[in-house]
Amino acid sequence: MTTSPYCPDVRYHWWELRNYICPSEGFVESIHNESGKYLKTRDDNRTDLNCSYYVVERKTDFENRLLYHQEIEMLDRRSFEMEVHGDIVRAVCFNGSDFYNGVHFFVKKPSVKRRRRQGLPKLQSATSPDSLSVLILGLDSVSHLHFLRAMVHTYAFLQNLPHVEFMGFSRVGSSSFESMIPLLTGWNSQEIKDFCLDSKRGLDRCPFLWKMFQNAGYETAFGEDNIDMGLFTLDKPGFEHQPTDYYLRPALLEMWQQTRKKIRHGAYCNEEDTYATVLLNFLYKQLPLHERHRFFSFLWWTQGIHAVFQYGRVLDKPFLEMFQKLMARGILNNTLILFVSNYGLKDGDSNTFSATNQAQMEVSQPLAIISYPEWLEERYPLAVKNLKMNSRRLVTAYDLHATLLDMPHLAALEDQEIRLRSQQLESPLLKEDLPRGISLFLPIPEQRDCSMAHIPAEYCMCHKPSSIPFKDINVVRAARFIILQINKLVASNHPPCQLLSLDRVLAAELWHRSLDQHQSEIRLQVQTLPGLGQFEGVVRFTDYTFALNGPIRRLNEDANESSYCIQNILIEKYCFCR
């Protein structure tokens, strides 16, 4: 694999993006201080203005509720300053035609009474010596090498902080949901579907990290910079109740439905701010509160960077400024920061970087960097020594999950505790059955391979696939097994869903485990009848038995528009309606 960020494949596609700035200059600004929440106009030469505002609140993850609408009393027909009573406000101004239509949002401290009703403890102090705050900065479709080439100023800043880069961090899923759910829950996507995903209650019952941190006395926050590709709302039902103390989606939904303006490179604006900037502002609005209390925050950027190779350069300066603000406020002194991605760039057409050999090698090696306060190594030398050693070991999102579980209780990082936990990990009983997730403050065993780490064969960089004839008996058996599993999924909705049969095998690859000759895997792409649906799955053979390794993915669009005959998002992509 090429280890240079600037190989020939890169240089051919490397140029600076232009015209990614929002066209508005921002006529209205929001202010939040101890005296209240306000909207006010910036200096402007316009006259004869008429303005109004709309206050909304979250109803569901897909709909907001209008609380009230009011005309704004103008000063000299050209400006205003007014107090608002709501957390999400849309302001509209016109002087003959609309010229401003923007959403503003505010964050407020979690209610003490509400925490008490929920049985949650008091918020921990931000300077508690027994814990660390956690800030997860997620970048969609960014490999480790691409982070080095695209965000050079941010990376240079990180070089001046205590940090560890995980060169052996491996992708574990085909989609963002499948890749990130192990980090956030410790489960895989199939376990989420089987044990806690509910078509009515959504993902509320799932064991997300923010629940554990809430129970440890942390403020919690979740935000992303998109609506149409949401981690938990793209082909998923989202959450019935607001999942975290601070939740950006309702405000962003109002922007998406009422004010969005598309600019180039797959990005959108809310007046003067791109959605990426909106997400940064979401963090900045919380900083006065984070200075006082422990917090867990998960932020996820997708727009632009998801599919445009050069877009990381657009985010570089804003991220550098973010780190500078965190340092100036002293938040870096009490916070573990995880910079992470789901996989490398994989979307794009044949003329883009994603089609090159270099991109194919990077796609299974996403970004993972942990930055920590300098005092952590002084207080817990053995734990941090292991963290650094693991930079060259095979690690996954499951391990990151296990690592973050240590943050509310730093006593688990004491040298004596680390030695005890390491001995348990080295037990002969565990050599062939290691935990799926291992805290990176413990030594990851050198003998760990992709199977032990629960890395699907198609994402394993430790070995390469070999071709296998489509008519091979094991390919045929595996193809029929995939169809059987699909039919089991739709059986409860048959009819109207039709049971499927195999039309033909489209692709097949054989994967062997490096340390186990009794086990192999076949990755298949099959086409089914009726409807010519195309699906991909991995079937694991162990001697004479076989099982699915991961979920079955749909590859092509559903021309049958199955959702018209069933209302079950868990199976509708497998359903061909009568």
From TrEMBL:
<dbReference type="Pfam" id="PF02995">
    <property type="entry name" value="DUF229"/>
</dbReference>
<dbReference type="InterPro" id="IPR017850">
    <property type="entry name" value="Alkaline_phosphatase_core_sf"/>
</dbReference>
<protein>
    <submittedName>
        <fullName>GL26124</fullName>
    </submittedName>
</protein>
<dbReference type="InterPro" id="IPR004245">
    <property type="entry name" value="DUF229"/>
</dbReference>
<dbReference type="GO" id="GO:0005615">
    <property type="term" value="C:extracellular space"/>
</dbReference>
